[in-house]
Structure formats: structure tokens, C-alpha cells
Design goal:
single chain; Immunoglobulin-like; globular; disordered N terminus
């Protein structure tokens, strides 16, 4: 243990930037834009059944030029793909003939909606109806018609949380497989022009010895964007102008059983709890959506996969899954993550508008939150939670104006707490793309907070006023061979974003990464990227919180495989002390066959820090998961993880006494009858053993062991994403004072929802 000398962060950045600057001159000329496709209106009816002989396909635009973009560098694909595109008064259509020299090798497991792995065959379209080269609607399906829909954004990445109304049908044939896709114009957002110009990407995923990705356009290596390389389509005229409405009422019923007394006592049934509510969507025109909800059902039919929280300093992130928040979800993605809608726990009602005016996009929502969740209390070295034991009114809005490939935006969030208190956050952000290799992103936020007068919930909630700022600046450069990133984040001590996910404040975070890519044409690895990442985090007074030096290598290749190996040399603060650590991080992912897929191993081993007791430690964190598929209908997913920490009781000498061991074991078996119905069984155990004698007295009397076991069964039928039926059962058990797993809860539940469309 030692205190490290302070180093000026500007020198830290210059040390990496100066040798990299000459590389700016080595930029390849941009690829010429592909020739536009002219789309003709269908000449007859089309039945979406996976057969391509309908009269409507006669005269459809035919696409036969495709490129293997990975692992090959925009070369001729090993398999032939043909596509057809057309439209009528209500729908956009796409059809594919995916030829395969060995149809028996097609990987097409049945699964739930959106559960498509990169180790399986699938294909489809990405439609950029805004024609801005930034954002596309993704509609993909596999040979057994398992659908995947998402938003792909060059600004915020790919997000499969949103769901859309659309149809598809697929068939495996003697020469490969075919796919038909029909997308209602009411599911898309576009401007009011009579003649529409859109962008499109046609895609095929073909996994065999390697994962082959095939597009209708070239995807240059070293590009900072994906949708921007789309092919333009013209000829779309007379499209519907909107006025589409969806009403989706629901009914849920739930019966809970809890112990009458201490854990281990008999369970007593509670009365059945009934809930009703309504989700509504109206598109008055093709580029505007109005969403409303009354008592929405935001329950989860499957709990989040458990994460090990022992010895974690900051809050863990879970993605949003709830329908009301998902229209225009990409507009809520900002660099500082000032919007995290899971912080809106139990809305009584909600109203939202999302739309487009010229080159500007906007979204704005208001809701009343009944509370019941948790609020992140951020800090310099760690974060904590406080119960949200109050009702509040919430408003979130963001507007974005596009300038070619760049944009400027403004965000505002506001939580007004019943009984006194508020949190308001606002400020601009931007993204500048001067060329196809460089992206500069920035954000500046101000926060104004009056905490509730509830010191019983959190020490800092004493009615005080807090005001501060947070800023973000990132420059990312990528070319065919070199890439680097420079990033700066600054959050003041009193910055609060109660509607966001900002667990660390009072810190200035500097990060620099430099990487070099190689693309071998032979061997088991087709992409090799050694890299160096440097990071320093100081508090606002200039004292060191964390310093990292991380050399590593990333490898991609055989069996859709990815391997990352990193060596971490770190200095990190725990309380008032600085500790030096040295450890390795390894991550491996492969899909070796149709029956054994998505094998993932993550391992961290070496020096560690016991943050709770402020002393050096040695630790291992390991997780292993994989999916067994005995048949195309049955998937058995196994997950296991362990974290253990060894310490010296005195803080010096050998670290050979076990402080704790935390394990999570999870098994999920899913039998998918069709692309619409499945039965899922889940069993999960979270087990922690600890040595209470090795903890400081401030923690009080700690149990030697915690053990929780949960199990659940769920039957689901989904006609579409809002017309659903769920029937479920769950059972929760925990270790009792008699050292046995005693029931602590049981639940039976069902949900039925139906979407009425006009």
C-alpha cells in the first residue's frame, strides 16, 4: 500500500495523443455512394407465406449485388442471395431467396421474439425512413420465422427494446431458405412529402466455420458509422398520411403468499390482486406519435438475471423493457445517461409525444410516479440507494436538430416531489462528424436539486439545496488500421440526476485508448487488435481516485469467436487510502455448433481491494454461460458466476483468509412450440458465505451465510407484442435461522392484453 504522486492529466493525454496525431493524414478516400434503387408499386396481391410466386412480385425491384463485409473485406459472398422490393397502399414488402449449398446446416432454432443470436441464420432489412443516414428500423427473421426488430442508430447504437407491428414468413427449401417481410407504413415514421426518398440495407447472417455478414452495399473497414452506408431507394409515392390508432387494454391477476411470521413459518395466501389498464397510441400523421397510458402494467414476467453485488462500489445498470418508454427510445440516449426511465417506478398515468419537424426530432413525456423504487445517491468513491417513498410528477424532453451527419440537441428532466423537493437537469449536447473517420461528441448539464426532508431515508435528504454541473467530451477516430479515443467527464460534487444513471460525482475522469487492427486472411483469427488504454480519475480537489494502465488484445475468428485479454495495473482509492493492484481480465465467446452455442467465459484474477474494510485483497471473479439445444424447439441456458475475496486481517502480510464467496447459479429451459408460444422454466440460486470476524465493527453482526433460491414457470402466447397471454408461477426461498431453505414467497399470476387497431 502506498500513496502515489499526483500527475497532471493534461500530460497524461498528450503522452498518447502526440504519437497518434501523424496518423490523421493516413485516411482512405471515401467509398462512392451506391446507385439508388427505384422501387415500383406492386402489380398484384402478395400473400406473406414464404413462397415467392405471387403476382405482386412481378416487376418488383430485384437486387442481386451483395458483398461479404466480414470476415472478407467487401468481397464476393460464398453463397448467393437475391432480394426483391416493392410496396402498395398500406405496406412495404421485401422478399429474399437465401441459397445454401447445404440446407441441412442451416441454424434456425425456435425462440422468443428478439432472441436471435449471431450464431444463427437470419436476414432482413434496415429502413432509414428519415433519410438522414443515422437511424434505421430493423426487421429481421430466421428460417423458422423468429422475428427480431430494433432501432439501429449511428448515434446511440442498436437497441432491440422497441417492438413494431409487422409480418413475415419463412420456409426452408431444398436450395436454402426464403423470407417474405411486410411492414405497415403505420409502423414507420416519415415526413409528409408525396415523393419519399429513403435509405435501405439488406442483410444476411450466414454462420458456419466463421460468421459471414453479407450486405447489399459495401461496409468499409475503419468507418465510424453503419447506417450511413445505406443504399438510397426512390419511387415511393402516395403513402398513407397517418391517422392510425392502437388501443391495448389489459387485465392482470396475482395471488401472493407470504410467511405469517418469521421466515420458515407457514405461508398465508393474500387476496387476489386485480389490475386493469390501457395503453394507447395515435399517429395523427406519419411523423408524429402520441402515446398515453393509464395504470400501465410495467411488471416483468421474468426477473432480471442476478448480478453479484458483493464488494461493488457503484450501482449496477439494467436495461429498460417497458413498452410506454420505447417510442423514439434513441432520443433518450445521451452521453452522460441523464435519462434512465427505470427510475420511474410505478406510473399512475403517462402521456408522451414524439415526432419530426423538418430536420428536427423531439420527444416529451409527463407522468405521475407513485414511487416504491430506489434513487441512486452518487458519490466520489461509491454510490448507494435510498427508497423512493414518495409520489412525484415527472417530465422529460429532448429535441435534436440534424446538420447533415452531425446534430445539436437539448435535454431537460424534472422530478417534482409531493411534500417538497425537486430535481431538475438541463443542458445541450452535440455530435460532430467532420468526415467518415472522426466523431466528436459533447454534453454539458446543469442540475438544480432540493432534496426531500426525509433524513430517515437518506442522510443527505434533509431539505438542502444542491447545484452543480456535469460535462462530457469525446473524440473517437477510427480507420482501417488505427483507432483511438480521448474522453473527459467532469461531474461536480452536488450534481444529481435522479431520473438518470450517474452513480459517480465529484470526479474528473480522463480516458485515452489507442488500438491497431490487423486482418489476417488465413488462420483461426480474422481480426487482431492490440490496444492500450490509460485512465485517470481525480476528485474535484485534484486527489487521485483511480489510475489504470491496460494493455490488451482483442481477437475475432473461428466459430463466431471473440477473445479479449487485458493486463490491469491500477491504483485505486478506498476510503482515505490508495492501493496498487495488478490483475488479468479474460473474456471468451464462441458458438461451436448448432447444438452448443453462445459459450461465454469471463475471468478476472489477481490483486483486488476490500472496499468495505479499506485494505488490500486478492480475488477471483468468474462467470460461465452457454446454451444447449437438444432440438430446434428446446433451449437450456446455464449461467454460473463466482466472486471470492481473500484478505489479511491486519491489512499487511499474506492475503490468505477468505472474506467472502458469492455464487450465482441459474438454469433456464425454454420449449418454444411455435414462433408465438413457449413454456419457460427458471431456477436460480444466490449464495454468499462470509467470515464476519474479518469485517469492521461498524457493519454490526453479519450472518455467516445468505442463501436464496427462486424458481418460476411461465407460459406465453404472443399474437403480436401487445396481444399477449401470460400464465406464471414463482417460488422464493431463503435460508432460515434453522439453516434450511424456507419459503419466503409464492405467486400465481396471469396477464391478458389485446391490441385493437384502426
Amino acid at each position: 500500500m502506498r500513496r502515489s504522486p499526483k500527475r497532471h492529466p493534461t500530460l497524461f493525454f498528450l503522452a498518447l495523443l502526440i504519437p497518434a496525431c501523424p496518423l490523421l493524414a493516413a485516411q482512405a478516400a471515401p467509398e462512392p455512394a451506391p446507385e439508388a434503387l427505384h422501387i415500383a408499386r406492386a402489380t398484384g396481391p402478395i400473400e406473406v407465406d414464404g413462397r415467392l410466386g405471387d403476382p405482386g412480385w412481378n416487376g418488383a425491384t430485384k437486387v442481386e449485388t451483395f458483398y461479404e463485409t466480414s470476415p472478407g473485406d467487401n468481397v464476393e459472398p460464398k453463397v448467393k442471395t437475391t432480394a426483391w422490393l416493392t410496396y402498395d397502399d398500406r405496406f412495404f414488402y421485401a422478399a429474399f431467396d437465401f441459397q445454401d449449398p447445404d440446407p441441412k446446416s442451416i441454424r434456425a432454432p425456435f425462440a422468443d421474439h428478439d432472441d436471435i443470436s449471431s450464431s444463427t441464420d437470419y436476414g432482413g432489412i434496415v429502413l432509414d425512413t428519415r433519410n438522414d443516414g443515422k437511424t434505421g428500423f430493423m426487421f429481421l427473421a430466421n428460417p423458422h420465422n423468429l422475428q427480431y426488430d430494433a432501432i439501429s442508430s449511428d448515434v446511440s447504437g442498436e437497441d432491440n427494446s422497441p417492438d413494431f407491428y409487422w409480418d413475415s414468413s419463412a420456409r426452408i427449401t431444398s436450395t436454402g431458405w426464403t423470407l417474405e417481410i411486410r411492414v405497415p407504413f403505420s409502423s414507420l415514421r416519415y415526413n409528409s412529402a408525396d415523393v419519399q426518398n429513403w435509405g435501405i440495407l439488406l442483410f444476411r447472417n450466414y454462420p458456419r466455420d466463421f460468421r459471414y455478414q453479407i450486405f447489399n452495399v459495401k461496409q468499409p473497414r475503419g468507418s465510424s458509422c453503419f447506417v450511413c452506408h445505406e443504399q438510397k431507394i426512390t419511387g415511393l409515392t402516395g403513402l398513407p398520411g397517418g391517422n392510425h390508432a392502437v388501443l391495448a387494454p389489459y387485465v392482470t391477476g396475482r395471488r401472493d403468499s407470504f410467511p405469517e411470521g418469521a421466515p420458515g413459518s407457514p405461508l398465508a395466501d393474500r387476496p387476489v390482486h386485480w389490475e386493469t389498464g390501457l395503453d394507447a397510441k395515435w399517429t395523427p400523421n406519419a411523423n408524429t406519435a402520441i402515446d398515453a397510458t393509464i395504470n400501465p402494467d410495467f411488471s416483468q414476467v421474468e426477473s432480471d438475471v442476478a448480478q453479484i453485488t458483493a464488494n461493488e462500489r457503484f450501482a449496477l445498470f439494467f436495461p429498460e423493457k417497458r413498452p410506454f418508454f420505447l417510442e423514439g427510445l434513441d432520443l433518450f440516449a445521451t452521453p452522460l445517461q441523464a435519462v434512465y426511465t427505470r427510475n420511474i417506478t410505478s406510473p399512475r398515468w403517462g402521456l408522451r409525444a414524439t415526432g419530426e419537424v423538418g430536420n428536427s426530432l423531439y420527444t416529451f413525456l409527463v407522468t405521475e410516479d407513485r414511487g416504491g423504487g430506489s434513487v441512486i445517491i452518487p458519490g466520489r468513491n461509491s454510490s448507494s440507494f435510498a427508497p423512493e417513498d414518495f409520489t412525484s410528477r415527472v417530465a422529460i424532453g429532448r429535441g435534436r436538430h440534424d446538420f447533415g451527419a452531425s446534430f445539436a440537441s437539448f435535454l431537460i428532466t424534472d422530478r417534482e416531489i409531493e411534500g417538497g423537493g425537486h430535481n431538475r437537469v438541463f443542458g445541450p449536447d452535440f455530435q460532430w462528424r467532420p468526415n467518415g473517420h472522426d466523431t466528436v461528441t459533447g454534453q454539458f448539464l446543469l442540475s438544480d436539486t432540493q432534496t426531500p426532508d426525509r433524513p430517515d431515508l437518506a442522510a443527505e435528504w434533509n431539505g438542502q439545496s444542491l447545484r452543480s454541473h456535469s460535462s462530457y467530451l469525446n473524440w473517437n477516430h477510427v480507420s482501417r488500421t488505427w483507432d483511438w479515443t480521448l474522453q473527459y467527464i467532469d461531474a461536480g460534487d452536488e450534481f444529481r440526476a435522479d431520473l438518470g444513471f450517474v452513480p459517480q460525482v465529484g470526479a474528473r475522469d480522463y480516458t485515452a485508448t489507442l488500438g491497431r487492427s490487423f486482418f489476417p486472411e488465413r488462420g483461426i483469427f480474422r481480426h487482431v487488435r492490440p490496444f492500450l488504454r490509460l485512465r485517470q480519475v481525480d476528485d474535484v480537489d485534484g486527489a487521485l481516485i483511480q489510475r489504470q494502465g491496460i494493455p490488451g488484445v482483442q481477437l475475432e475468428g473461428l466459430w463466431n469467436g471473440n477473445l479479449t485479454v487485458e493486463h490491469h495495473t491500477e491504483t485505486v482509492r478506498a476510503g482515505s487510502h490508495l492501493f496498487d493492484t495488478d490483475f488479468f481480465v479474460t473474456a471468451i465467446q464462441v458458438s461451436p455448433s448448432q447444438r452448443l452455442t453462445d459459450l461465454v467465459l469471463n475471468l478476472t484474477a489477481g490483486d483486488d481491494v476490500d472496499f468495505a474494510n479499506e485494505r488490500p485483497a486478492r480475488g477471483i471473479t468468474a462467470s460461465l454461460q452457454g446454451t444447449l439445444r437438444p432440438t430446434d424447439h428446446l433451449a437450456i441456458q446455464l449461467n454460473g458466476s463466482r466472486r471470492q475475496l481473500d484478505v489479511s486481517p491486519t491489512g499487511t502480510g499474506p492475503r490468505d483468509e477468505r472474506l467472502f464467496t458469492a455464487d450465482v447459479a441459474r438454469a433456464k429451459a425454454t420449449y418454444t412450440f411455435t414462433s408465438r408460444a413457449f413454456l419457460r422454466l427458471v431456477a436460480q440460486r444466490v449464495h454468499t458465505t462470509r467470515n464476519p470476524e474479518l469485517y469492521e465493527p461498524i457493519f454490526g453482526v453479519l450472518p455467516k451465510e445468505d442463501n436464496e433460491v427462486t424458481s418460476s414457470a411461465l407460459f406465453a402466447y404472443k399474437l403480436n407484442w401487445q396481444t399477449v397471454l401470460f400464465l406464471g408461477y414463482s417460488d422464493d426461498r431463503a435460508l432460515s435461522v434453522e439453516d434450511r431453505l424456507a419459503p419466503i414467497g409464492r405467486a400465481l399470476f396471469f396477464k391478458i392484453s389485446y391490441a385493437f387497431q384502426r
